[in-house]
Amino acid sequence: MSNFKSYLKNHWIKMVLWFMIVSYILYFSIFTILRSQNLYAHYFDLGIMHQTLYNTFEAIKTGDYSRFLEMTNPHGIEQMKRMAIHNDPILAFLAIFYFIYSGPETLLVIQSIVLGIGAFAVFSIVEEVLKKNQKKNIMGLFFAFSYLMYTPMQRANIYEFHAVTLATTFLLFMYYFWLKKKNWLCLIFLCFSLLTKEQVGLSTLFFGIYIYYIETKKRIVQFKTIQFNLFPIIIIGISVVWFVVSMLIIIPLARGGNHFALSYYSDFGNSPSSIFLGILKHPGSLKKYIFHIDTVRYFLFLLGPLGFLSLLSPFLFVITLPQFAINLLSNSWNMRNIIFHYTSVIQPFVYISAIYGTKKVLDYFSRFKKKRYLFYLFVICLFVICLLFSYFKGPLPFSREADLYPLKKTNEAKSEIIEWSNRLKNPDLKISSTGSLAPYFTSRRYYYHFPSGYERADFVVVKKDELYNYFDSSIDIMGVYKRLIKDTHFTIIYNSKLVVVYKKI
């Protein structure tokens, strides 16, 4: 009878867990698709990613492998490989899903599904870490709920598509399978994680060091002979090779020079080695980046939703150090913002360390007679904190900073853009358009983000209000548009209050 009750209880818990996961996937899939279709998405980076996958899909379908991971230079006119910007070859695997549907919506749904399933990994890690605690299922459900409500992850999910956002879930499963001593599965998810971006290898390097320390320490405590531990060495080796080969061989060969993002660290040097040495030689220069109010906000919104429990497991939290350094030492302040995808590699270890922090708290409560009441008070406090952060910074309908425009407001230009995307559906046409129209026009080999390279396009489609609020103030988009107006190689074939279309004569 007790086994039957236990089965029913576990069955109910799993049903609640998967209800939460499916709800998350449905909401964010629908939301991000509507966001794109209502012209709230952009060329950076949904259009870029979609063009890369579309070309890869066409390469697989037609056998023209010159198109494999190919895209048009976002700031130029030439065709280039995706590795010239980031080494995220997992995009090639995702292109297989374009055989089901070859539009940017496929990427948005995949991203929501993968991130949503991360809640199952979180739940499983809690069950394993707290396996001796009778309340492990309650804590598992709370952490899964908190993960799905976690503002930085939701914001990353909303903000276009980036391969590295998938690393959040891959890294969680990597850690879980290490806990379960399923090393082959751990290595598979390690590799999936690495394939999402070049710098992920730095975080997995620290993970390898961590598990080497833990396993060596365990043998010392158990008075066993310390033996050469191969598995963490393999992880460390793979991680180092991935990062070094990406930064010093693959990206420079594809780009014809150093990684573009090295300019974000120009205060320290202009190459990976000179930046590293510059930081060591001038540690005082770190002050203006680290000791800043934005850094305080950054840590607050990353750690606050879990009540700063991650800090109770500091050695595990150190795995986040490489990505924190990449974000905090950059002269691009966007990298310290939870709106974008730059927290994706940090998030898994914020949760894993918080789970271990929770174990320490629950072990401490076990000393008291009223430990049951302390437990429920602890869970209620965490639940309230989670909801407060979601209310103040989250994008959901009940939040103070709710992102509802894609749900409530249809962009006036949408019907015109749909009509023109159908007219210009021929993938052999070369199209130039302003940024928010890119998801509609990047299903082709050649696409030029206006104002770059419009001269090469067969058609130029401009959403007029984007001429006045261009994201990069260093580019004179209005000046280029005035040049287009006078360009005798183009003629206007459509002109409304919102949209203008030029055709090359």
UniProtKB/TrEMBL annotation:
Annotated keywords: Membrane, Transmembrane, Transmembrane helix
Transmembrane listed as a keyword: yes
Residues that span the membrane, as ranges: 12-34, 84-101, 107-126, 159-178, 185-213, 233-254, 298-319, 339-357, 373-392
One Pfam family in the UniProt entry: DUF2079
Protein name as it appears in the record: DUF2079 domain-containing protein
Organism, scientific name: Candidatus Roizmanbacteria bacterium CG_4_10_14_0_8_um_filter_33_9
Lineage, opening ranks: Bacteria, Candidatus Roizmaniibacteriota
